[in-house]
Automatic annotation (TrEMBL):
The protein's Enzyme Commission number: 2.1.2.11
Protein name as annotated: 3-methyl-2-oxobutanoate hydroxymethyltransferase
Binding site for 3-methyl-2-oxobutanoate: D45, S46, D84, K114
Subunit structure: Homodecamer; pentamer of dimers.
GO molecular function, one term: methyltransferase activity
Catalytic residues in the record: E183
Gene that specifies this protein: panB
Record keywords: Cytoplasm, Magnesium, Metal-binding, Methyltransferase, Pantothenate biosynthesis, Transferase
Main function: Catalyzes the reversible reaction in which hydroxymethyl group from 5,10-methylenetetrahydrofolate is transferred onto alpha-ketoisovalerate to form ketopantoate.
Pathway: Cofactor biosynthesis; (R)-pantothenate biosynthesis; (R)-pantoate from 3-methyl-2-oxobutanoate: step 1/2
Reaction(s) the record says it catalyses: (6R)-5,10-methylene-5,6,7,8-tetrahydrofolate + 3-methyl-2-oxobutanoate + H2O = 2-dehydropantoate + (6S)-5,6,7,8-tetrahydrofolate
Major localization class: cytoplasm
GO BP, sorted A to Z: methylation; pantothenate biosynthetic process
InterPro entries in the record: Pantoate_hydroxy_MeTrfase, Pyrv/PenolPyrv_kinase-like_dom, Pyrv_kinase-like_dom_sf
Length: 265
């Protein structure tokens, strides 16, 4: 495999090839995602919800993110790996942000980091970029600010927030981010952003007129089933399939169908 790099992503935008991105948090799943040809693997702080069962992304720690990221990195032959800086690891000041990013790069072997926000974290992003660490931006619905928003509904429907988002996207490009995630904003606005910058825009709930798409792995596989946003396409119904497999196992153990003659020594 030819490895995906931050440069190949920009080339993909230029040549109009859409970028595929999924999350992964562990070795076994990351191996499958990478082998399937997904371009970018995000070790998202959605691990806080999906892996740890928290209601928000706020509780996950930098140490926990590094654990997930290092597990993913050991599985990868091709994909570019992006790791979320978790809540509380970069907001205090640029030096703290850089220290956190360095820890992720050194201790997990990841290829890049992602931070939520625009101009309010500009200096932190610049500091990380100056250290040679590629940064992916994240605008629109930024789940680490859920208590500021109050809900997980669509962002930037009003002119003022939309204008600010476009300005933030241009700023992130200007200071050197290699891509930006746009989460849950009107498709027309996402299209406008993708046309306003030359770095790739990866959407989640941002419509088709962007440069790539990202979904949470466990959501698109149908392993989670309480989460039903409009943007989510389920490619499998693993919640049901796995439940059935486990029920069959229980029945087989109870009936001593398992193990059979060949399944013993
Ligand atoms: O943590 C995450 O999974 C994310 C994606 C939804 C973009 O940030
Ligand atoms: Na995230």
């Amino acid at each position: 495999y030819k490895r995906v790099t931050v440069k190949s992503l920009v080339d993909m935008k230029r040549s109009n090839e859409k970028i595929s991105m999924l999350t992964a948090y562990d070795y076994t799943m990351a191996k499958i995602v990478d082998g399937a040809g997904v371009d970018v693997i995000l070790v998202g702080d959605s691990a806080s919800n999906v892996m740890a069962g928290h209601e928000t992304t706020l509780p996950i720690t930098l140490d926990q993110m590094i654990y997930h990221a290092s597990s993913v990195i050991r599985a990868i032959d091709r994909a570019l790996v992006v790791v979320d800086l978790p809540f509380g690891s970069y907001q205090s000041d640029p030096k703290e942000a850089l220290r956190s990013a360095i820890r992720i790069m050194k201790e997990s072997g990841a290829h890049s980091v992602k931070l939520e926000g625009g101009k309010e974290i500009k200096e932190s992003i610049k500091r990380i970029l100056h250290a040679g660490i590629p940064v992916m931006g994240h605008l629109g619905l930024t789940p680490q600010s859920i208590y500021k928003f109050g809900t997980y509904t669509v962002r930037a429907k009003e002119e003022e927030e939309a204008e600010r988002l476009i300005e933030d996207a241009k700023m992130l490009e200007r200071i050197g981010c290699f891509a930006i995630v746009l989460e849950k904003i009107p498709a027309s606005l996402a299209k406008k952003v993708a046309e306003s910058v030359s770095i790739p825009i990866i959407g989640i709930g941002a419509g088709p007129n962007v440069d790539g798409q990202v979904l949470v792995l466990h959501d698109m596989l149908g392993m989670t089933h309480e989460f039903n946003p409009r943007f989510l396409r389920r490619y499998l119904n693993l919640y049901e399939d796995m439940t059935n497999a486990m029920k069959q196992y229980v029945a087989d153990v109870k009936s001593v169908d398992f193990p059979n003659e060949e399944e013993q020594y």
